[in-house]
Amino acid sequence: MFIHSIRWRLLLWFGILLVVVLAGFGTTAYQLQRINRFHQIDQDLERRVGALSADARIGPPGRGPGGPGGPGHTSPDGETRRREPGHDEGHHGDWTTRPPDESDRPGLGPGGGSTRPWERPIRLSQSTKDLFDSTSGEVYYFAIWTRDGPLLKGSTNLPTGISMPSRPGRETTMRTRTRGDLREAFHYSEMGECILVGRSIASDLESLERTRLWLGAVGLGILVFSLGGAFALANQALRPVDRISAAATRISGGNLEERIEVNTHSELGQLAEVLNGTFARLEAAFRQQKQFTADASHELRTPLAVIIAEAQSTLARPRSESEYRETIETCLDAAQEMRRLTESLLQLARLDAAEETLVTIPLPLGELVRDCVDMIQPLAVAQGLDITAEISDVTVEADRLRLRQVIINILGNALHYNKPQGSIQVSLMVDEGKARLSVRDTGQGISAEDLPHIFERFYRGDKARSNQEGRSGLGLAISKAIITAHQGTIEATSELGVGTEIIVRLPAAPTSTQLR
Amino acid sequence: MRILIVEDELRLSRSLAKALREEDYAVDTADDGEDGLYKALNYDYDVIILDVMLPKLDGWQLLEKLRCTKPTPVLMLTARDTPRDRVHGLDAGADDYLVKPFDLSELLARLRALIRRASGQSHPHLQILDVAIDTRARTVSRAGQGVVLTAREYAILEYLALHRGEVISRTSLYEHLFDENDDTLSNLVDVHIFSIRKKLGQAIIATRRGQGYCVEALGTSTTH
Lengths: 516, 224
Hints:
The complex is a heterodimer of chains A (about 525) and B (about 220).
Chain A: H1 6-58, E1 97-98, H2 126-131, E2 140-145, E3 151-155, E4 175-179, E5 182-188, E6 194-200, H3 202-252, H4 267-315, H5 321-352, E7 360-364, H6 365-382, E8 386-391, E9 395-399, H7 400-416, E10 423-431, E11 434-441, H8 475-485, E12 489-495, E13 499-507, H9 512-515
Helix pairs in contact in A: 1-3, 3-4, 4-5, 5-8, 6-7, 7-8
Chain B: E1 2-6, H1 10-22, E2 26-30, H2 33-42, E3 47-51, H3 59-67, E4 74-78, H4 83-91, E5 96-99, H5 104-118, E6 125-128, E7 131-134, E8 139-142, E9 145-147, H6 151-162, H7 170-177, H8 188-200, E10 206-208, E11 212-214
Parallel strand pairs in B: 1-2, 1-3, 3-4, 4-5
Antiparallel strand pairs in B: 6-7, 7-8, 8-9, 10-11
Helix pairs in contact in B: 2-3, 6-8
């Protein structure tokens, strides 16, 4: 399924991560931009508030530089203070001071009423006027309210409906507020007058909006591009997996010679190599098993062929009693061979499956070896062979019957492959905590080529010795399986023409005195 | 007909030889590859029954060496029965392939077919003048009347009939009809020929003086 594919999951997580990162970056960038922009706007506004505030403070007559403007000029608000500035107020674009609304200030006649000293004309210095010069770009407006609320002075472009901002406590610090697309900075002077400067930030908001869209577009672009790259990368990275899976599929389909093509040193390359190694071992094991099965069937088919050919040819016509007898003897012989073989095969299969339960007892190996040597002695004598045995007492934890089978098998081989007037030397000793049984013969020996294979099933160095005299080619393989099941080892050394030595090592049990 | 059995399993070899001899084949045996090759190269066998797993020289190697010089029909006898083994055997120059354990009657039928094919005859019935030979039943009849031949007589007649048109020397005839254990004299062949002529008519086998015997090919007139 879609969601179960590593590729898509990888891509999904990558996508989510990327979206989060991009969104974070984009938002931060946008916020920074916005903060900067507002900071800039606020600074501009505050500068103007400051300038106005300074002018307003200067306001009362008789002090400070009233501005370089020519005296005698009547201000638009009709105040006739001497130091009326703003001779050219009307020349500065759309900003001009507006006469205070009479209705706002009932009882305050133009030019009169010095009963309220705060109601005074405010002259703007030239520098302040310059600040409000709209030709420089932004159009600012301002308003100055008296402490009680009436508008003392305001620019002509003052937006309608503007009200004095509320004053929390006796706060005099510079504050800002946003109303719709208007940004305003204000502060209350010590006198309680409120000085406010504002401007439209519509264009700024628009620009920020553009920035936002642009950031979004760039983010989306990066996302698409990165996801495409990630998809290609994931494909590239996962291609070996596809190859591995394809090869594994072919192998499981029966083509055991198949291997994964390794052309990368990445983790997947290493994995492929490991898998190839496993496949090679599997193939070897499988081939061995196949060989074993083929050999086993071959070994069984030959006596079967004898029985069938013999019986059919005998039945083809009437025979004498002695002929029947001969036929039955041949058939029996072949059948016995098959029985031996099937028993060996069965035992091997059980040993392979570890189903052959070993009845292990503390076994005096010396006695067992001596028994076996005694048993084989008459046969050796009949062949003119000389058996010498040097046996020390050692106890092993072992299955008596199985071990006896091994010893008889080894002695039997030494007997069978020996040369006339040869000898067999048997020795049993304790060597490095292990019982070491050695059987050395003076036979024709085993070639270096065959030596590594003699414990393999059905392996016969010289095929001339094939299954005659009940030798199935499984004896040593079974011996090895039994010894291995006893945690022991069996090995062979041999020299062509000189003889062969088979050495069995078994873990020695704690001494018999301790056991008894 | 003389057959070589190359087989290392002695009981099988013995049993096969016995069965084949009862079918009036002359049988030699070899129990390893080298001996088998030596015999195969030194005698003109009509068929060789060859086991694959042999000591010293295995069946494939023997076959390869034999095929360098001789086209003797070879029937491979083996316990290996995978299609690959069969293909290998036939490709290596074997003429037939039989898997152990086999049916004796099948083996005999295949041997007859191999012998027939090797001599260029494909039909199991041979007709010479008014004499009919059934190689399957190993019977002979003259003008519809059954004629009883001894095994040796039949073998000689069948061999000559299978190689009709060819002049077969006395030695060659002897080699094909008697195995290595036979120590009968070669002039025994003449005795058998005489007996066959008595039963089936003079014309059936021609004598080529100094060369041997011959069953005339179809369409050619017999001469004395």
